[in-house]
Write a structure and sequence with these properties.
By secondary structure, the chain is an alpha/beta fold. Helix content is 43%, strand content 14%. It folds into two domains: 136 residues, Aspartate Aminotransferase, domain 1 (Alpha-Beta Complex), CATH 3.90.1150.10; 239 residues, Type I PLP-dependent aspartate aminotransferase-like (Major domain) (Aspartate Aminotransferase, domain 2). Helix 2 crosses helix 9 and helix 4 runs parallel beside helix 5. 47% of the residues are buried. The model has no long low-confidence stretch (mean pLDDT 96). The protein binds pyridoxal-5'-phosphate (PLP). The site of pyridoxal-5'-phosphate has 13 residues, from helix 4.
């Protein structure tokens, strides 16, 4: 049978990142490749306790179909948390989603027709690029520096593409670079969205995981005109396996999101929603997040120390104040895949930069994750990586 796939399906049968992550799952390999939170901090007992209570108190409701908007209990939890990001919204502006990944997909479904222009950061989260590509978007990337997307370059992109419909940004501890958009640029972006009339999808999965520096308000908090849609998730502050996130948008849009969600999955898992709401009722989330940030800071510091100790002096690296990633650029490396293949053979893994770019690729770039490996693994793995870089640079 020759299957006739839709144009949404990638033409290529290869999945280099998937292959890499499968290879890196080998326990002999020290993997800085994935984007996994530290599982030893999952509050297993507290989640189990919350689950037991949910089954006792409302087992039948928790196992029944639910509303596509989400359970009122969890929506209330989200509404209470929005103040942390300076967002003023009430429950009618919130919908619970199956992770923030679903919000990216539903946003594509809601706004994008074939050929619509979407502006993204260069580089950006590869699963968002996959979503926008699947909706046939014309992707335009805008360069970043340590303060996030460059606003002069964005204005140039908007002048070249006044038809831009959507801009996707991860303003805090970005995936893959770990960089954070400055306060001035957040304000400017909200103004530009109103001026050029495009939607901003502000994806903030990592913002709560800040271990240094001063917290910054969300871009959404500067939105006077309904141009900014905000999404975040329980994946990094609680557990990704629960698959729960949320979207904050004007009421009219939340109603549209609910229609789109109905055809995607009817609603997010009701049982998980009750368990998470109960977890929040029973526990102090801030002290739990403090444990996560303390551990990630320790691991980030170790990784930065190891870069200084083991990598050539020409290497540049980002300095994340939170989140899970460091972005590396090695001048002189033209084939990052070759370095990656060599590293896998030597039992260490990272994600090469290529898949994070939608157009021109910056060679010699790659992403390192520090949240998921122990201090010993970080030291040994970074030493191996440093030796591999030296070898590939010498051999060419
Ligand atoms: C930038 C970004 N957005 C969205 C997601 C999806 O997260 P989830 O669907 O678990 O909320 C991730 C996952 O790592 C991410 O890095």
């Amino acid at each position: 049978m020759k299957y006739q796939y839709s144009t949404k399906v990638p033409v290529s049968n290869t999945d280099p990142v998937g292959d890499l992550l499968r290879a890196a799952a080998n326990p002999d390999i020290i993997s800085f490749a994935g984007g996994l939170p530290a599982p030893e901090l999952f509050p297993v007992e507290q989640v189990q306790e919350a689950a037991n209570q949910v089954f006792q108190e409302k087992g039948m409701t928790a196992l029944q179909y639910g509303s596509s908007k989400g359970t009122p209990e969890l929506i209330k939890v989200v509404a209470d948390r929005l103040a942390i990001d300076g967002i003023q919204a009430d429950t009618e502006h919130i919908m619970i989603s199956t992770g923030s990944q679903q919000v990216i997909d539903l946003t594509g479904k809601l706004f994008l027709n074939e050929g619509d222009t979407v502006i993204v950061e260069k580089p950006t989260y590869l699963c968002a690029l996959d979503v926008f590509k699947s909706y046939g978007a014309n992707l335009v990337s805008v360069e970043m520096d340590e303060d996030g997307m460059k606003m002069d370059q964005l204005e140039k992109a908007l002048t070249d593409h006044p038809e831009t419909k959507l801009l996707y940004t991860i303003p805090s501890f970005q995936n893959p670079t770990g960089r954070t958009m400055s306060l001035e640029r957040r304000k400017k972006l909200a103004l530009l969205a109103a001026e050029y009339d495009f939607i901003v999808l502000e994806d903030n999965p990592y913002g709560a995981v800040r271990f240094e520096g001063t917290p910054l308000p969300a871009i959404k908090s500067f939105d006077q005109t309904g141009h900014v849609i905000y999404t975040s998730t329980f994946s990094k502050i609680l557990a990704p396996g629960l698959r729960l996130g949320w979207v904050v948008a004007p009421k009219e849009l939340i109603e549209k999101y609910m229609v789109m969600k109905q055809s995607a999955d009817l609603h997010s898992d009701v049982l998980s929603q009750y368990i998470v709401a109960k977890f929040f009722e029973n526990n102090d989330i801030e002290s739990h997040v403090a444990k996560i940030t303390a551990l990630y800071k320790e691991r980030k510091d170790l990784m930065v120390d190891a870069i200084v100790k083991y990598f050539p002096k020409t290497v540049t690296y980002s300095r994340p104040e939170g989140g899970m990633f460091i972005w590396i650029e090695v001048p002189g490396i033209t084939d990052t895949q070759k370095l990656s293949d060599y590293c896998i053979k030597n039992d260490v893994a990272f994600v090469p930069g290529e898949p994070f770019y939608c157009d021109e690729i910056v060679p010699g770039t790659f992403r390192l994750n520090y949240s998921n490996m122990s201090p010993e693994q970080i030291d040994i793995g970074m030493k191996r990586l440093g030796e591999a870089i030296e070898k590939i640079l010498t051999e060419g």
